[in-house]
Design goal:
alpha+beta; seven-stranded mixed beta sheet; six-stranded mixed beta barrel
């Protein structure tokens, strides 16, 4: 009976604590891997493994990322930070895409912080008539959890952090990673995103009711429009309007956010997600024409080597309505703003390779703009659908062109690798 009672206590105390530690390790390893992988991105040079590992070791031992441990006979620790070493991570080349690396990470409880079992050894002691010692390893549980992080098309770009004044380390890391106040149409971008496309420079035909662009768009042209991404403070329409001098001034201050040295008047773009409804400017409208020179001047201050996060609309932009729905985000850099001969807007952009962006997330969960009301994000459409996993569900397909990506847990990482516990 005593052995039975001890077994029950061992189950409720030792084994449940070990299970709780495994849950905390899984949460910790996923949070650390997603955060570290997102820092592999920058605004100009694409993916950097060094950035990932630097951020991982910065996160190692973070006070917010803890799990049961020990207790250590020397320190008496029952819980400690989740830490990582160079033995805990690896980069995996995507066999379908030679330029892409996935990130694997393991969180462990072994050595001095292995889970010490208090009651399991007693079961053997009570049940051992010969007085022999308990089998080796019955007094500890060496638990680990692993994960793999890949990139998926971003469904949400967070609000831009302030870029003036004293910035926290976190804000400094995210400065500039926000949606740019120019949108393009998926009716043309979906073709440009094809890996078979060879065009690199695209001309943006700005929508206008006064001087409509040519129909259909010429080869290498994409319909687009300036958009107002300033927060409105309204629950019914999260973004500012796109008519009148006040709105054009907001556009100028939004563009200022992306200049090399933003002024104190710069506006941080609001969060944008799949399903966001935006208003677009008519560059031929009177109030826009009055401030056109200031718009061009701010555009000229944007670093030419920096790739921008460009919202992509479901259809060609329509003036005078907020029904311009975002379906995803593209990655371009500006190479021309005006036509030197006519002085008119001639926006040309170079398409970038698909790459991660900080301040981005990939989710199909609840809407956050303008308020969380229990609605789900609309279903993704091509080329922003989740990346395929091959005929047998075991391989991540190649990236499309020019897509802004966000870190995501791999759908193909095998269960036999994600979990483990030895020693008990």
């Amino acid at each position: 009976m005593l052995a039975l009672v001890m077994a029950f206590i061992a189950f409720t105390a030792d084994l449940m604590r070990t299970a709780y530690a495994a849950i905390k390790l899984q949460s910790g390893v996923e949070a650390a891997a997603l955060a570290a992988y997102s820092y592999g991105a920058d605004l100009q040079n694409g993916f950097s493994r060094a950035n990932v590992t630097d951020k991982l070791f910065e996160l190692s031992g973070a006070h917010w990322n803890r799990a049961p441990a020990g207790p250590d006979g020397n320190a008496g620790i029952f819980e400690s930070p989740v830490t990582f070493s160079s033995e805990d991570y690896s980069f995996i080349e995507n066999p379908s895409d030679s330029g892409e690396s996935f990130f694997r990470l393991k969180a462990r409880r072994d050595g001095s912080d292995a889970i010490k079992l208090m009651f399991v050894p007693a079961i053997f002691a009570f049940n051992n008539l010969q007085g022999l010692p308990a089998p080796a390893g019955t007094d500890t549980a060496k638990t680990y959890r692993s994960t793999e992080v890949i990139s998926q098309p971003a469904s949400r770009i967070g609000e831009g952090v302030p870029v003036t004044g004293s910035l926290s380390a976190r804000d400094a890391d995210l400065a500039g990673f926000a949606a740019f106040p120019l949108a393009i149409s998926n009716e043309q971008f979906s073709t440009a995103a094809s890996p078979l496309s060879t065009t690199t420079i695209y001309t943006v035909d700005l929508a206008s009711n006064i001087a409509p662009p040519a129909t259909p768009p010429a080869a290498g042209h994409i319909r687009g429009a300036f958009i107002n991404l300033s927060p409105s403070g309204s629950a019914s329409n999260a973004y500012g309007q796109a008519q009148g001098n006040a709105s054009v001034n907001e556009l100028i201050r939004l563009i200022d956010y992306f200049s090399s040295v933003p002024s104190v008047q710069a506006i941080s773009p609001y969060v944008v997600e799949r399903g966001s409804s935006l208003s677009v400017f008519d560059p031929e409208e009177t109030s826009f024409k009055e401030l056109e020179a200031q718009v061009k001047a701010k555009l000229a201050l944007i670093p030419t080597g920096r790739y921008q996060i460009i919202p992509v609309l479901a259809r060609n932009p329509v003036i005078g309505t907020g029904n311009n729905i975002v379906v995803g985000f593209a990655r371009f850099r500006l190479v021309r703003i005006i036509d030197s001969t006519t002085g008119k807007f001639r926006i040309q952009m170079e398409i970038g390779g698909s790459a991660l962006a900080r301040n981005a997330s990939a989710t199909n969960s609840l809407v956050s703009v303008p308020t969380v009301d229990g609605s789900l994000l609309p279903a993704p459409v091509a080329p922003f659908s989740g990346r395929n996993t091959g005929a047998f569900g075991d391989q991540i397909g190649a990236r499309s062109r020019g897509i802004v990506l966000a870190p995501s847990l791999s759908p193909t990482f095998p269960d036999k690798i994600t979990a483990g516990s030895t020693g008990s």
